[in-house]
């Protein structure tokens, strides 16, 4: 499979027809039609539903379109990076980040790094921890800022910050009189939290004689916070997520339990060498955080 095939395919999808794509690519329609049929034969599956005036993608076609975009983007980033080094213009830092840490924990450091390296370019890819692990394994990013708990023996880990879990609830519905919330006070409350925190929360609650019954399990701090903002439940999220919250209407109180802590980490693959840009960022984080692996 060649990059030109991917470029042709993306053009067909984005223009909605082979005729319009051929015009944009300065090709005649028949060779482009043949190229699309050859691509389907190579992949062993149809990518389009035939017969529609505007093309429609099969499920395989949708998946292949996303992968083609990723590959073309990575190729362009690599070209820019190598060209930039040759011209003394810096590189491209391809970094993943979990949404709950991006604003409060990642960006202050990243902005300090950017100030030191004004010729560096950036691609930030947000998503939850498991999404970042998958992108790292696929080579779509070189490093990612993620949260514990996670278990993956294929990555190096640089721990950056410890962040206690906190309860977020509307101020008018806040039943907790103190600045911190005890585990026992969570009993019978409509809790909303990450699936990854479920086992740890259950373990700590069971020590206090009860089993939590979550109103909603999800994979993103913003989702949990939205449920709390709607007055439907109490979100349990990393304390630093308060950066997303209107504190005039919402109460944010850490949970008084030393074990209910999540750590922010930089991870990178053990299987792939780092680019100069990512290695430079890693060295910066080690110095900035005064920590080491």
What does this entry look like structurally?
This protein starts with a helix and ends with a helix. It has helices spanning 3-15, 18-24, 29-43, 59-86, 99-116, 129-138, 198-207, 221-229, 276-289; strands at residues 48-49, 56-57, 92-97, 121-126, 143-147, 155-170, 191-194, 216-218, 234-238, 250-254, 261-269. α1 (3-15) crosses α2 and α1 crosses α4. It is globular. The chain is α/β, with parallel strands linked by helices and 293 residues long. The protein folds into 3 domains: 3-79, Winged helix-like DNA-binding domain superfamily/Winged helix DNA-binding domain (Arc Repressor Mutant, subunit A), CATH 1.10.10.10; 90-160 and 263-289, Periplasmic binding protein-like II (D-Maltodextrin-Binding Protein, domain 2, 3-Layer(aba) Sandwich); 163-261, Periplasmic binding protein-like II (D-Maltodextrin-Binding Protein, domain 2, 3-Layer(aba) Sandwich), CATH 3.40.190.10. The strands form 2 sheets. Strands 3, 4, 5, 6, 7, 8, 9, 10 and 11 form a 9-stranded mixed beta sheet that branches. GO terms for molecular function: DNA binding; DNA-binding transcription factor activity. Pfam families: HTH_1, LysR_substrate. Keywords: DNA-binding, Transcription, Transcription regulation.
